[in-house]
Automatic annotation (TrEMBL):
GO cellular component: cytosol
Entry-linked Gene3D superfamilies: 3.30.1490.50, 3.30.1490.80, ATP-grasp fold, B domain (3.30.470.20), Glutathione synthase, substrate-binding domain superfamily, eukaryotic (3.40.50.1760), Glutathione Synthetase, Chain A, domain 3 (1.10.1080.10)
Function: Catalyzes the production of glutathione from gamma-glutamylcysteine and glycine in an ATP-dependent manner. Glutathione (gamma-glutamylcysteinylglycine, GSH) is the most abundant intracellular thiol in living aerobic cells and is required for numerous processes including the protection of cells against oxidative damage, amino acid transport, the detoxification of foreign compounds, the maintenance of protein sulfhydryl groups in a reduced state and acts as a cofactor for a number of enzymes. Participates in ophthalmate biosynthesis in hepatocytes.
Top-level taxon of the source organism: Eukaryota
Protein name per UniProt: Glutathione synthetase
GO molecular function: ATP binding; glutathione binding; glutathione synthase activity; magnesium ion binding
Leading EC class: ligase
Keywords for this protein: ATP-binding, Glutathione biosynthesis, Ligase, Magnesium, Metal-binding, Nucleotide-binding
UniProt-listed Enzyme Commission number(s): 6.3.2.3
UniProt family annotation: Belongs to the eukaryotic GSH synthase family.
Binding site for ATP: 145, 307, 366-375, 377, 400-403, 427, 452, 454, 460
Length: 476
């Protein structure tokens, strides 16, 4: 199983069909669920979220490396969010050409001008990696990005281990079933939210999930909500439109929505330009940022997660600024960096363009966007860069080395999709949670992991985009 599904299992079509049926039922029983239709009143139209039939082998040393570095990434994100000069300098070129980032930055500047209302900071993030295969066939952990806004699948990934354990037992592979790790990011993420709520200091105040109008991935969020209700912490779900219509601040800047005081705003919406459908939507974001409520993330932490900041961090000497006299921490973080290159105007950016045009298959062109499906690959990189024709538009992008993970065979189980073997690539995510009050870090933890797998024919796109599926690591 170290290289994938054993041949005697993989080639047994009758067994595979039976296992797939067992797996789908197990997913429904364990609550690995997703809505079929994106309508507000479609809770009864539910199916299993897409997932792999078998867990995917992951080298144990690389997996543990990803877990070990997560608390340092939590600290790094927090330090960046507090460094106004660094954020301004890092994003200067981007905000000159990218309207969305510029709009976010203007809110950031307004908050700085007024003074932050809340000293409690809540960070829930997910650092995503692929395992780059070296020439000697060993794997090297390389970061794709860090998500500081609405990092998803902490809920569903808490339910998938039991599904794969059950499948392996039915397949007669008891030893492998015992190597599926326990994993409960939902509890860890909720624990940090609960700590922020507790520090806010009002038992009457609620936690507000700021959500999309329609949400296929609602059950992922519900697991975190349920963890909070177990702690007797009330939650509500509201949309930008609700905040526009019923949101207000009192004289102490306490946030009220629909008559309820909000202790924590947990943003699960607001990371893409299309989420802001009107000026009123932007006003609602500013209202929440100005309020006494704890924001997850606040505007500066949102900006800390941009691609441009990721690229600037890879420059020599930058990490040392955030971890002075901590060379081992710097070394551990830097070891996870892939090659990252600026596209700012000037000789360095020109060199990056020439490098990309000469060998586009070696790179990924990344805009300042989240949500999956935005990156540019292969010959399309040439089309985009040549189309810009030395325009400042290129400053809205960064260039990154393409990571080359080792493929493995698996079956991807999706509703209404044929059961067939696929050549698959996997992406490892690690969840981090931290709470800071003033200068004191109250909580800083690695709270779980996520493995997503997709067919190697797809360059980009996640589970929500319909490309990747949920998976579990089988440590080898």
């Amino acid at each position: 199983m170290a290289q994938g599904i054993p041949d005697e299992v993989m080639m047994n079509t009758s067994l595979i069909k039976d296992l797939a049926d067992v797996a789908k039922d197990s997913a429904l029983l364990q609550g690995v669920l997703m809505r079929i239709e994106e309508t507000p009143n479609a809770s009864e139209l539910v199916t299993y979220a897409p997932f792999t039939l078998f867990p995917t082998p992951v080298p144990k040393d690389v997996f543990l490396q990803a877990l070990a570095v997560q608390t340092y990434y939590n600290t790094l994100v927090d330090q960046i969010s507090r460094d106004t000069d660094f954020l301004r300098d890092a994003l200067a070129s981007t905000i000159a050409v990218d309207d969305f980032t510029a709009r976010l930055f203007r809110i950031h500047e307004q908050i700085l001008k007024e003074g932050r209302s809340q000293s409690i900071v809540l960070g829930l993030n997910r650092s995503d990696y692929m395992l780059d295969q070296r020439e000697d066939r060993t794997s090297s952990l390389k970061q794709i990005e860090i998500n500081t806004f609405a990092a998803s699948f902490g809920g569903l990934s808490s339910r998938t281990p039991d599904v794969h354990r059950h499948i392996l037992k039915v397949a007669g592979r008891l030893e492998e079933s015992q190597r599926i790790l326990d994993n409960n990011p939902a509890a860890g993420l909720a624990g940090a939210v609960a700590k922020a709520w507790e520090l806010y200091g009002s038992e009457r105040a609620v936690i507000m999930f700021l959500v999309e109008e329609s949400q296929r991935n609602i059950f992922d969020q519900r697991y975190i909500e349920n963890e909070l209700w177990k702690r007797n912490i009330p939650t509500i779900r509201k949309r930008f439109d609700d905040v526009c219509k019923t949101g207000s601040l009192d004289q102490d800047k306490r946030l009220f929505v629909d008559g309820l005081e909000v202790a924590v705003v947990y943003f699960r919406n607001g990371y893409m330009p299309q989420n802001y459908v009107s000026e009123q939507t932007w006003d609602a974001r500013l209202l929440m940022e100005r309020s006494l409520a704890v924001k997850c993330p606040d505007i500066s932490t949102h900006l800390a997660g941009t691609k441009k900041v990721q690229q600037v961090l890879a420059r020599p000497g930058v990490l040392e600024k955030f971890f002075p006299d901590q060379p081992q921490v710097v070394e551990q973080i830097r070891a996870t960096f892939a090659g990252l290159y600026t596209l700012d105007m000037g000789p360095e950016g020109d060199k990056t363009v020439a490098m990309a045009l000469e060998a586009p298959d070696r790179f990924v062109l990344k805009p300042q966007r989240e949500g999956g499906g935005n990156n540019i690959y292969g010959s399309e990189i040439c089309q985009v860069l040549e189309g810009m024709n030395e325009s400042t538009e290129r400053m809205a992008f960064i260039l990154m080395d393409k990571i080359h993970p080792a493929p493995a065979h698996n079956f991807l189980l999706r509703r209404d999709a044929p059961l067939q073997i696929s050549n698959c690539l996997s992406e490892l995510g690690v969840f981090g949670a931290y709470v800071r009050q003033g200068k004191d870090m109250v909580m800083n933890e690695c709270v779980g992991h996520l493995l997503r797998t997709k067919s190697s024919e797809h360059s980009d796109g996640g589970v929500a985009a319909g490309v990747a599926v949920l998976d579990n690591p089988l440590l080898v």
